[in-house]
Structure to design on (289 residues):
């Protein structure tokens, strides 16, 4: 099975270097450092007809050193990798939504772009202290922000969400949300609440959305999903019974679908989620099981 999109970021995050201001300043001037350019959370790509590649530009090709607010992502071998927001794309690069190209990029580049997009989204949302309301400034190479008034430190936020394929015998449960593309059905998902284990979140979400009692949640895989700030935690679970009581405020429909019908593209009664999603991975894993 192919690598799950956005999970193959091979960068050494080098967290111990984030506090070294002198080293970071030198890397921002180093012509061999590279920067992933962003604009309004869109990522720069080099679309030259051979498929998109991430627009990683050597600092030596820029007009000057990187700005102080450039985010230090880590080390690729000896080379420092940054991300920075700019107003204009250099010649040959274009800005695109990551969702549109994530599954087309080489896997390590998709992972790097997800990392940069997630951090940039948080940077854009944490300009003010949510303890006292004063301004915050970036510190630690962009991995924290400190309040100028009360000194509170704020860190990037990731929202855990469980996503689960529920099965009963040779049937699995797929649901349809109003915001899905026409005909698409997917695995059930929801955010983890305070004080809740992942397993409890699986059982609660499945019951709320479908009336199905989920048993024995089994963790399979996770996927960063920076659209804007989620971490998807993928499970399989068994159903106590093949019943259904759909909560129409959460889903427009849900169905039990036979494995044989999903395996045969000719008979498949629904459209499956996109190949870059963990939902698709959970479905494919079950189909092959
Ligand atoms: Zn404050």
């Amino acid at each position: 099975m192919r690598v799950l999109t956005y999970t193959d970021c091979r960068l050494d995050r080098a967290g111990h270097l984030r506090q070294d201001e002198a080293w970071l300043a030198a890397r921002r001037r180093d012509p061999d450092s590279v920067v992933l350019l962003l604009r309004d959370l869109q990522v720069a790509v080099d679309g030259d007809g051979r498929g998109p590649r991430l627009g990683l530009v050597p600092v030596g090709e820029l007009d000057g050193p990187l700005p102080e607010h450039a985010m230090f992502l880590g080390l690729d071998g000896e080379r420092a990798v940054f991300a920075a927001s700019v107003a204009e794309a250099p010649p040959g690069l274009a800005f695109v939504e990551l969702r549109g190209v994530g599954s087309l990029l080489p896997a390590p580049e998709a992972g790097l772009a997800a990392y940069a997009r997630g951090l940039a989204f948080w940077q854009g949302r944490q300009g003010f202290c949510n303890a006292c309301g004063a301004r915050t400034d970036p510190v630690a190479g962009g991995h924290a922000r400190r309040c100028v008034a009360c000194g509170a430190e704020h860190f990037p936020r990731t929202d855990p969400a469980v996503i689960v394929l529920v099965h009963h015998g040779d049937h699995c449960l797929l649901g349809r949300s109003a915001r899905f593309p026409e005909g698409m059905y997917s695995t059930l998902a929801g955010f983890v609440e305070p004080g809740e284990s992942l397993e409890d979140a699986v059982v609660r979400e499945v019951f709320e959305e479908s009336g199905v009692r989920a048993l024995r949640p089994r963790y399979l895989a996770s996927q960063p999903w920076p659209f804007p700030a989620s971490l998807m935690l993928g499970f399989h679970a068994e159903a106590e019974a093949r019943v259904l009581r759909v909560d129409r405020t959460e889903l427009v429909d849900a169905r039990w679908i036979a494995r044989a019908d999903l395996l045969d593209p000719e008979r498949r009664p629904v459209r499956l989620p996109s190949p870059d999603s963990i939902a698709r991975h959970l479905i494919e894993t079950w189909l092959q099981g």
Remarks:
- The two ends are 12 Å apart (CA to CA).
- The pocket of zinc ion is lined by residues 129, 131-132, 134, 147, 149-150, 152 (CB under 6 Å).
